[in-house]
Amino acid sequence: MRKLFSTKVRIILVVALLLTAGLAIMSSTGTQSLPGTIVQVIMSPVRAIGNALTDTAEQYYSYMFQYEALAAENAELKADIAQMEDVARQADSVNRENARLRGLLNLKATNEDYEMVDAYIIGWNSTDWNSTLTINRGTTSGIGENMCAVTENGQVVGLVTEAGPNYAIIKTILDSTLEISGTISVSGYNGMVSGGYIDGHKTLLKMEYLPSSSILRNNDQVVTSGSTVYPRGLIIGSIVDAGFEETGVAKYALLQPATEVNTLEQVFIITKYTTDASATAETTPTETTAGETTPNP
Predict the structure, then answer these.
(1) Cα–Cα–Cα angle for 135, 239, 278, rounded to 5 degrees
(2) pLDDT tens across 182-230, in order?
(3) What is the CA radius of gyration of the chain?
């Protein structure tokens, strides 16, 4: 009974409140009828919700449109940056090649008897004991075995040990099996230079069989002594350390190679040069194809 009464009271209070609100609205609107006013009251929040949804939809559409425009602009900018980076890389490559060619002109100007073929490095192979490079030119370009490879500045890179029609393999100065007869340019001491694994000095060369009385100074340059394989005066490296062999009879020197083999892009193969044999015999200079043995006079 209490619940029923309580429910009836609540209904009456709600109806009274609605009537009061309706009368208040009628008094404020004047001529508008009660049903119309009620409809207006009911539709007002609906319109507000609709307007809010419309505004949200418009904002979302505007955001999506701007996002697509920004995404397209971003993609275009990325393409432009990639193109500029590619142009910059090509410019750097051209600048490096121009610098090498200028150096080569200087080398040929001081060694007019040199005939050379340029080649790009396409492969590297290196271990503790072996070090080789593969280049993109071979026998069809006049390259053969036992030809010397140098940089544009006349620094020794190594020796061609294998050649095919369109490729060749160069054993570099860091290879333990490659030996080069060298001379310390300041003092004239001669020795044999080789690469390979040197404990604590993997990237250095070792010059052996130097006289025990020889005076070895850091930064003294070592060049090729000259042979039918290596022209005289090519730069091998410079002295960074020295000591006595285990026997104590001879000295050795550690050399910093003149060229960083692992950073090279291009090399030049000396295919022909003039062998100056006057240092060993009273003969006239003989033009020699690299790799061939000069006949004894």
Answers:
(1) 75
(2) 999 999 999 999 987 666 677 899 999 999 899 999 999 999 999 889 9
(3) 44
Which tokens in the block code for residue 101?
């060619």
The three-state secondary structure class of 118 is: strand
**pTM summary value:** 0.64
294: DSSP letter: P
Amino acid at residue number 222: V
Residue 74 CB neighbours (<10 A): 10
* Amino acid at residue number 10: R
Nearest Cα to 236, choosing from 280, 195, 294, 187? 195
- Burial of residue 288 (CB within 10 Å: 0-12, 13-18, 19+) is buried
Find tokens 């730069």 and name the residue: 235
Coil, strand or helix at 164:
coil
Nearest residue to 131 via CA among 141, 139, 123? 123
Q: How far apart are CA 105 and CA 108, in angstroms?
A: 5
Determine the Cα–Cα distance for residues 14 and 24; give it in Å rounded to an integer: 15
With H, G, I as helix, E, B as strand and everything else as coil, classify residue 146.
Answer: coil
User: Cα–Cα distance between 87 and 164 in angstroms, integer?
Assistant: 34
Provide the CA 233 distance to its chain's centre, in angstroms: 32
Q: Any residues with CB less than 8 A from the CB of 292 and at least 6 apart, and which?
A: 146, 228
Determine the Cα angle at 279 with ends 273 and 282, to 5°.
100
